[in-house]
Amino acid sequence: MDGLHGEYCGGELPLRGRAARSKTPSIATIVFPLKFIAMPVVHSRLSSALSRRGCPFLASLFAALCAVAGERQPLWPEGTMPDRQPHQIAAMTDEASAPDFDRAAHAEPFVEWHEPPAPETRNGTCAILISGGAYQNCCDVGLVKFWRKRLTELGIQCVSLVYRTPRPKGLPIHQSAWEDGQRAVRLVRSQAEARGFDPEKIVTFSMSAGSHLATLLATSALTPAYAPVDALDETPCHVNAAVAFALAYGLSDGAGLPNAREGDGPDILLDPAFAFDDRTAPMCLLHGGADIYSPLASTRVYRRLRERKTPAEIHLYPDRGHGAHGFDRAVEFLRQLGFLGAPEPEVPLMERYASDAARATNETLRIWPDGKMPDVQTNQCVPILEWHVPTNLTTRAIQMIWSGGSYVGNGTGGFEVAPARRFLNEKGMTVVTVRYRTPRPAPPLAKHVTAWQDVQRAIRLVRAGAAERGLDPERIGIMGSSAGGHLALMAATSSRHKAYRPIDDLDRNVSCAVQWAICIYPAYSMSDGLEKPNSGGGNALDARLAPEFSFDPDTPPMLFVHGDADGWAAMNSVAAWEQLRRMGIQGEVHTLARRSHCFQRQASPGTGSYTYLDRIWEFLSAKKSLL
């Protein structure tokens, strides 16, 4: 369910707390009539009184008993809320817009506990749901309801946080919300045992300004947002993972507003309030490529997480504006990290896609006429292309695929090629697989030159042969993995750069430009890893893309999928996506937490590594002109 932000109003943030170590009175001293469960104000005052009198455990227990019945829990004991400002309220916009809304009765931020998951689905995780609203209100009512429903079905205990808005006066725009957020995390953690979840499996789901708040909570738990008010504030306020949709206000050209310069420039800085301290949590960042709140805020946060070697994912969606895109990717992130229970055993990709039943015909052709191949190397394999036409043709588009292999070897029958080819044949798409020349040519030729020549010629052959097969010569895409991903990037961005002297009319008259490219963990793509794994992880802002990528005017949209733990760094993909965006080209990126090179060879069901082929079809389907 995408793009909910702005269509609905609502959002709530949960609280946290912890048991105090002070002397605990007899339970007989706090017996209360059950009818009080319908009286939230009485409950909050009694809970606050217990906390102030040195009984935070009983206060938390009492609050938990009340909240089980659907009550809201105020965050602050009476008279202790820091930076109180009379213009602020704590209410979702659906409630605040009611004709009989009483501002005075809604001055206290709170968390609201939602129905617990069914016992058979519980996995010990608790999700704090945080609305956006520009720090002016809490407006994501529909989105929060959607998260609550889906996450509860997955076995997660949900709790919503409603923090103070509008923005405080004379303070940073996030200050009062950050205070409320840290207090909420403490309250939630303090109630873990009573509510049946793990105090170290607390995650946040957030949107827009709420994602700015969640990023503060995920990266800056060791920075106190307020002075302690009671024993509950001894409880740690770190979260264990954060899912952040459409992070707003993360860059210096968009402090409190949409980004003035699209977040792109050497003088534009990441919000210094994000400390990235030793309690920084794994994060899943999801952002629309056309968002006025620049997606470069998410790529900057992602870089900092990678510098710390904190597991992280980033998912960037082409042509999408401000909205909550990619909920299913967030679920896969949680599953990969164990928040939905132990991941299932990994399954080999070749076992899942073992059949050629969807293929009608198969034809193999040599790429070069006899005696015409440039830069012949006697130790290299013969380059070929193979047509794989599906039984049930549903599109006239053509997908070309080749493998990686460090430019030392490559083939068309392995896990980087055959499963994708079979997957697309099943979808009704024609596939052309390519074997390019390897091993590497002898110096002074660069490692990729003969492969690049083969691919440019192969694209021309496919374009020339499309019409006779009833296919569209102007709907051709390419796909490669690892060194093959580098080759795909080069072929897609440098089609106007001749790789060889023309040998016939085909080379003189037929273009080798393509309409899209799919790069799976591309290697050798940045200045810190041109011949080997990236020495700096590709994270430095001054790391540059490889010079062989021209990014010429025929550069098409691209999809990138990359393991976050890959030595041939995921920033190869992210940096290429950033360059596409500078050119006005909308690409797509998916990185996968804790996954290394060749992430798809075998993968656990329900994770992004397992479903990665679906990203290809979704990318092509979203770009309707391609299919």
Topology summary:
Layout: H1 40-52, H2 56-68, E1 72-74, H3 93-96, E2 110-113, E3 126-130, H4 141-153, E4 157-162, H5 175-190, H6 192-195, E5 202-207, H7 209-219, E6 241-245, E7 283-288, H8 296-307, E8 312-317, H9 327-336, E9 347-348, H10 349-352, E10 359-366, E11 384-390, E12 398-402, H11 418-427, E13 430-435, H12 449-466, E14 476-481, H13 483-493, H14 505-509, E15 516-520, E16 558-563, H15 571-582, E17 588-592, E18 602-603, H16 612-622
Parallel strand pairs: 3-4, 3-5, 5-6, 6-7, 7-8, 12-13, 12-14, 14-15, 15-16, 16-17
Antiparallel strand pairs: 1-2, 2-4, 8-17, 9-18, 10-11, 11-13
Helix pairs in contact: 1-2, 5-7
Task: Describe the protein in words.
With 627 residues, the protein is of the alpha/beta class. It has two domains: 27-79 and 109-336, Alpha/Beta hydrolase fold, catalytic domain (Rossmann fold); 360-622, Alpha/Beta hydrolase fold, catalytic domain (Rossmann fold). Helix content is 27%, strand content 15%. The chain contains 16 helices and 18 strands. The strands form two sheets. Strands 1-2-4-3-5-6-7-8-17-16-15-14-12-13-11-10 form a 16-stranded mixed sheet, with helices on both faces. Helix 1 runs antiparallel to helix 2 (56-68) and helix 5 (175-190) packs across helix 7 (209-219). It is elongated and about 90 Å long. Mean pLDDT is 91; it is low at 1-48.
